[in-house]
Write a structure and sequence with these properties.
Number of strands: 5
Radius of gyration: 19 Å
Strand order of the largest sheet: 1-5-2
Distance between the termini: 48 Å
Helix content: 55-70%
Shape: globular
Length: 202
């Protein structure tokens, strides 16, 4: 409340830096340290906060490495969910629809999923990117039907995973349907170019 703290964005760590951190802080993991370091980098891409939390989960909860490749351990999941739940409902809805569209997505796809204008979704995504939160801006999207919109990507694939998993099966199906129909219509006769992506949605 006194606003005495300052948030400092940290750069992502290189694989050798991740291995060095593991060597210093993972004494209970024994001979598997190189494998743990490789897993941490694979799952977090060197994101410092995610790396520290994932290592804590592996150390304290004795999660097998093979399982940690398939799931998001509880501590890391709690951390990510807490960040998401601090957002407004409108912001959460945009990110949830984005998670359905993919690790990278067009604003027009998300707009179709949440039933709002491209301009409104563009504004929210731009705010996330400017704050360095959740999203980064990518190249513009141009569809064959003339639709032009921004394109964004999740700053980390773990955000997309957690957002996707939080949705009920019925909501996932509804968003997939809405986004798939929008993209199919936008591509028209060229829809076969999007066959793999449309197959996922439908």
């Amino acid at each position: 409340t006194r606003k005495l703290a300052v948030e400092l964005p940290l750069p992502y760590l290189r694989p050798d830096a991740v291995q060095a951190y593991v060597a210093q802080h993972a004494g209970t993991l024994g001979d598997s340290l190189p494998e743990v370091g490789a897993l941490l980098y694979e799952r977090t891409e060197g994101h410092p906060l995610f790396m520290v939390q994932l290592l804590a989960d592996l150390s304290q909860q004795a999660i097998p490495l093979a399982q940690a490749r398939q799931i998001i351990p509880p501590g890391l999941q709690h951390l990510l969910v807490a960040q998401i739940e601090r957002l407004t409902p409108a912001e959460q809805a945009v990110l949830e629809a984005g998670s359905i569209a993919g690790v990278e997505f067009g604003v027009a796809s998300v707009a179709a999923g949440v039933g709002r204008s491209i301009e409104e979704i563009e504004r929210l995504c731009e705010q996330f990117a400017q704050r360095g939160q959740f999203l980064v801006e990518r190249a513009m999207l141009r569809w064959p039907d003339g639709t032009v919109s921004g394109r964004y990507g999740f700053r980390h694939a773990l955000y997309q995973e957690v957002l996707y998993q939080r949705l009920s099966e019925s909501r996932r199906a509804r968003l997939h349907q809405l986004i798939g129909e929008q993209e199919e219509a936008a591509y028209g006769e060229r829809a076969r170019e999007m066959a793999a992506e449309l197959a996922v949605h439908f």
